[in-house]
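Q: Start with the shorter request: fold the first protein.
A: Done. Sequence, then structure:
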Amino acid sequence: MSSACTCCWVLLFNDFFQPLTILSALPLCLGGSFVMLLVTGSELDVPSMVGLVMLMGIVTKNSILLVEYTIRNLQLRQVPMVEALADACMKRAGAIVMTTVAMTAGMLPIALGFGADASFRQPMAFAVIGGLLTSTALSLLVVPVVFSYIDALRRTVARLPGRSRRRDTNGVTAR
């Protein structure tokens, strides 16, 4: 991940810690991709690497959906964190599942070997489908947990001696 992209996330969320929450979803997709490549007997080659890059973009977008909606709930509605996380997962699960279904349906003809030179592109489809299935199932569980731990870390750092008073995510002044 480039430093410019990370800086954009820091500016977007006005926080140095939430990009870590977003990036926590990336390892969830890699396991599914590698298992799917192993099960199908495909190699880790250039097309499968292209699929991994595409997959990481989709998984990052899904994670941003969850984190952004949770932060919005915390700031605007002034609800407890657990309620904000649960609401974000329920409301954004539909969009995440629809993205997974659409990408899987788009990759299915390639995975089944239809089209010209499908054997060259099949590893890409296997990597994307495997990674999407595991990341969709796990990101709705793992990202909220990581969000709560990162938020606790952020609050702990904000309370360290020598830190100036500033406003935290909930709009409450922190010491």
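Q: Next, the second protein, separately.
A: Sequence, then structure:
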Amino acid sequence: MDSRSAQEKAYSFLKERITNSTFRPNSRLKALEIAKELGISRTPVKEALGRLEQEGLVKRELGSGYVVQALSIREILNLYKVREVLEVEGAKELLQLLTEDIIHRLDEILNGAQALLQEKRYDDFLRATLKFHNAMVSATGNNVLCEILAGLNARIWSIGTIIVTKYPPRADEILFENRRILKALASRNVDDLERSIRAHIGGAGDSVKRLIEQEPYDLYIASA
């Protein structure tokens, strides 16, 4: 197995066990033990842990390696609040630069996301919807906004995978909401566009709250 395949194996193994709560909040993740279980070297495991740290699923603790990150509902909702403000601003900037080519490119991304959803490839589906949002901001040419949102959306994507794993109907809602955003964008209606973005991100926040109320002790997300 080459190093890239080994890293993907470790990444998928860790991601699945974090999102299904096998590895619970604040659990210590020992790279050597994980490497032995997977039959690979420690290096790809460390690389996978680094990726998960960027996504906000694990954190590095001085002298003790990595542990599973636990976010409170307040922290998660604050992420969504910031994202909402930035995405509304990005969408308004995009309206000033919008072309049919941009609309076509965004539509193609959502068509690809729909195909992935039909195959129940939820992780890939969420990556595609993330690509849709990043592409909207990228089209503005505002590099500062792109950089901030790219990091923010990477963390939110990880939260989204947990939500969709535990509540699959949310994936259909996400696709519908993104189609509504694209429709508002294509119509050049700034009010509809802002409403559709706020509804989409608000819907994500509502899903987090609903999930924590239903399973407060069975999530990597802290209930406090």
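Q: Describe the second briefly.
A: Residues 217-224 have pLDDT under 50 and may be disordered. The chain is about 75% helix and 5% strand.
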